[in-house]
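Standup, Tuesday
Yesterday: got the pipeline producing structure tokens again.
Today: sanity-check two examples.
Blockers: none.

Example 1:
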Amino acid sequence: MNKYTLYAGTAGAMQTAEVKNEKKATLWERFKNYLIENVDIIAPGIIMMNGGYYVPTKK
């Protein structure tokens, strides 16, 4: 038995059914989340590659 086994009428079956009905994130949504989560690394790299100056701020 694995975690995806369905049992009719049990709470486990309802939870597994809910997991199957969830919409997966699209490629664009995953890419957007990646950029948002890693902006502290990506932005300074882009600035430096374009010949600009980057002064890190204190957090």
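Example 2:
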Amino acid sequence: MADPKGFMTTPRQDWPRRPVAERVRDWDEVYVPGALLPIINKQADRCMDCGIPFCHDACPLGNLIPEWNDLVSRDDWRQAADRLHATNNFPEFTGRLCPAPCEAGCVLAINQPAVTIKNVEVAIADQAWELGFTPPRPPDRLSGRTVAVIGSGPTGLAAAQQLTRAGHTVAVYEKDDRLGGLMRYGIPEFKMEKHHLDRRLEQMRAEGTKFRTSTAVGRDVGAAELRARYDAVVIATGATAWRELPVPGRELAGIQQAMEYLPLSNRVCEGDLESSPMSAAGRHVVIVGGGDTGADCLGTAVREGAASVTQLDIYAQPGADRDEDAEPWPTYPKIYRLSAAHEEARDLETAPAADADARLFAASTLRFTGDESGRVRSLHLVEVDAARRPRPGTGRTLPADLVLLALGFSGPDRQDGLVDQLGLAMEPRGTITRDAGFATNVPGVFAAGDAARGQSLIVWAIAEGRAVAAAVDRYLTGSSQLPAPIGPYDRPMTV
């Protein structure tokens, strides 16, 4: 603990964002470049070294947060990078994309603003790359065992890196033309520039991991054939089967799933397209769904030049403070949060009729209506109570030339045939069944990440990848020294 009074003398200060008017004109990350390092040492000093760090339990990776906070406060970036990478393969991803449940579990957060754990994490990760503290770590010797990992999202990449470093020969199969899963084509550039992903992939290649892009297992290569070719298979395809909105008018043109819309803007940033064929430019956009994917659509539509953008959230507007009875510390509370995209929408007044920023809370879609050509023109909604029952007399109509459905995901997409060709057992909710060792009903086949857990956070995805790697290593060799931070049935802290 570098400064015993740091939490009393230093106020919380977050990484400042660039001015809204500036950042909405480009796709660069929203934060002021170089503005984090001058403040991060004093922010790390706010860590209380509390003795019972609940931030550990709040983070499924078990990040050693007080240790690397202390090291950052002393400017010891090498040791901080070592402690950070001891539990997290990709801290530059989580430091940008994770909603930071660790901060909700910070002991300081009982009665003060939490330590800026997420900012400290990303500062360490970026400094580690800048100062050369992240060299490839190829294995000393090979085991002679082979593993196929299906899916190159955070779970698949974490599993592949751990297994490669353990000496196994690993090939990652990705159905898209580029690696990264939703980090590549689902996360907008303004949340994470893709050079962070490309840099980590180059490290993995140098360590010996093989990658096979544009290869959908079940379609381009048979799932049974793949299983016969490798000693073990890890299914980490994610939960990409999106949820639908079965209301009248859903068949109208201009109503798209969020994951049909977001990849196109990412392809524009990659240089594949000059402009998105689903661009929101000049359109009245309504986003149905109040989660992070909806916020990603919001920030994207603003940058594309939408005439208006409104986001519908079926839940009531949360308060600014934690409800100590319903969601006591150290659980992750549902409070009003202003993401960068919502800040932009608020300042630019993209949705004049919204309750706050661009959001309409407690709003449920009733139906869509369109024009003579069959294109959507209006969305009809109603206000609902806590039980989602319509409130009489609260019906409204919003102009809508483009509607984006961001309602979450139910499990892995089965269209490629992977699940059926292997004969995998499935849970009623649409996820892959597995036992306490991450193993499916098919010998030698393991399932991890959202494909088996269901839709979750990036920290859980990476933790699953690390844990399934330990399970596969044990299956192949009889024992394992790889860390397993979670089990398949672990869940976030709740009341």
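Quick observation on example 2: The radius of gyration is 23 Å. The longest strand covers residues 363-370.
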